[in-house]
Amino acid sequence: MQMGGRKLISLVLCVFAATVFSGCTNWKGEYDKLKAEHENLLGRYKRELGQKGELAEELSAKQQIIDELQSKIEQFKQSPGRATGFGEDYDVAFDASAGTITVTLQNRILFSAGEAKLKKATSRELDHIQSVLKSKYSGRQVDVVGHTDSDPIKKSDWKDNWELSAQRALTVLRYLAKRGIPPEQIRAVGRGQSQPIASNSTASGKARNRRVEIVVHIR
Fold it and tell me: Contact, 165 vs 192, CB < 8 A?
């Protein structure tokens, strides 16, 4: 009876030991699995942390550029002549949405009534504009745009205001090109009376509409 009891106890102990050690083996496997997952997650976290750092630096650099551009835009708005380099003595407008700088010269400065030939062989105003274009806006597209008032052509040989405005624009273009503005960078446009900036019902309004614009495309 004692021998049978001992055998039973030994059998139970063997079963218990097998169960325990088998369980330990499962726990070790689970531990190794969880440890591997933890290391993978830690690696991903470090990589993402590094990427976040790079992204933060990139965002900071772009924000700095945006701030600088915003500052320049404010300068343009407050003092476009000084900010663009053309000077306070010139009628300068900056259009941020179009990406253009426009310098306006009244025709009385450059031309006699009904004429497309410059009043003088040299123009202080055009020489200054040419100098700024070469020094600050090299390679930028430049449009020379001629405008007139709404009075029909009567005392000259021009067919109409379109032709007069185009010829005046060409005169200014040739002046600038002769002094170093590359031909592929500049073009002439005649607008005639189609784009008034003032009422043509008054003499002062007509005078404002008779103009040549130097339009610099900055983007």
Answer: yes
What value does the mean pLDDT of the chain take?
Answer: 85
Residue of 52 and 177 predicted with greater confidence: 177
Helix (H) or strand (E) holding 142: strand 142-147
Q: Helix 161-178 vs helix 124-136: angle between axes, to the nearest 10 degrees?
A: 60
Please identify, in words, the CATH class of the domain defined by 83-217: alpha beta
Per-residue pLDDT at 46: 74
**Which residue type does 41 have?**
L
Q: What is the pLDDT of residue 71?
A: 77
Sheet order of strands, 91-95 included: 91-95, 100-106, 211-217, 142-147, 186-190
Continuous segment of H or E residues that includes residue 46: helix 2-78
CA distance 91 to 191: 19
- Label residue 196 left, alpha or beta by phi (over 0 means left) and psi (-120 to 50 means alpha): beta
Q: Are 146 and 167 spatial neighbours (Cβ–Cβ below 8 Å)?
A: yes
pLDDT, residue 37, reads 77
Q: Are strands 186-190 and 142-147 parallel, antiparallel or unpaired?
A: parallel
> What is the rounded end-to-end Cα distance, in angstroms, of the chain?
105
Q: Which of 148, 161, 163, 144 is nearest to 198 (CA)?
A: 148
